[in-house]
Amino acid sequence: MEPEMEIVHLLRAVAVELGLHSARFAQRNGMHPTDVRALIALMDARRAGEELSAGRLGAVLGLNSAGTTALLDRLERAGHVRRVRGARDRRKVVVEVTERAVDLGQASFGPLIERSVELLRGYDEDQRAAIRTFLEGVREAAAEQAHTPPESASQRES
Fold it and tell me: Phi/psi at 89 (nearest 5 deg)?
């Protein structure tokens, strides 16, 4: 097998393991997998100092308005999120994660994150830059693929 394909297969295996880890977290905490994706998106926004409206969160998750409302109602009832007035625009309602949700995520994902950071510290800056570039490229390729309609059998035969 080509070395590049070995890495691609390893990346796929990592994605599967991370998906299983996330699914176990969701199951243990009575959540739907989309709930976990929403919490991750909200925590990423928080870390970046950004505010997410319900509409923007729904767009990030690929949900319609009704699905987003149901998701937020579920997460709010569980004490994982709250709807608040925006800090930058008080007319806007934004969604933020609660400390309870952050603590819950840290308890489950913290050890994995810490181990990943330890592994990365074993690489020099050039190697970390290469890893970062590769992962960004794969993420962009996956995002592009998500927005490209699948090719039908008749199109492949043409």
Answer: -135, 105
Rg (CA), the chain: 19
How many whole angstroms from its chain centre is CA 66?
21
Q: What is the pLDDT of residues 53-91, one digit of tens each?
A: 999 999 999 999 999 999 999 999 999 999 999 888 888
Diameter of the chain measured on Cα atoms: 57
Helices (H) and strands (E) in the chain, counts: 7, 3
Tokens representing 2 are 């080509």
Q: Which long-range contacts (CB under 8 A, 24 or more apart) does 75-81 make?
A: 75/35, 75/38, 75/39, 75/101, 78/30, 78/31, 80/35, 80/39, 80/104, 81/38, 81/39, 81/42
70: which 2 tokens?
């149901």
Tokens 């409206």 found at: 53
> Are residues 100 and 63 in contact, defined by beta-carbon separation less than 8 angstroms?
no
pTM over cut 0.85: no
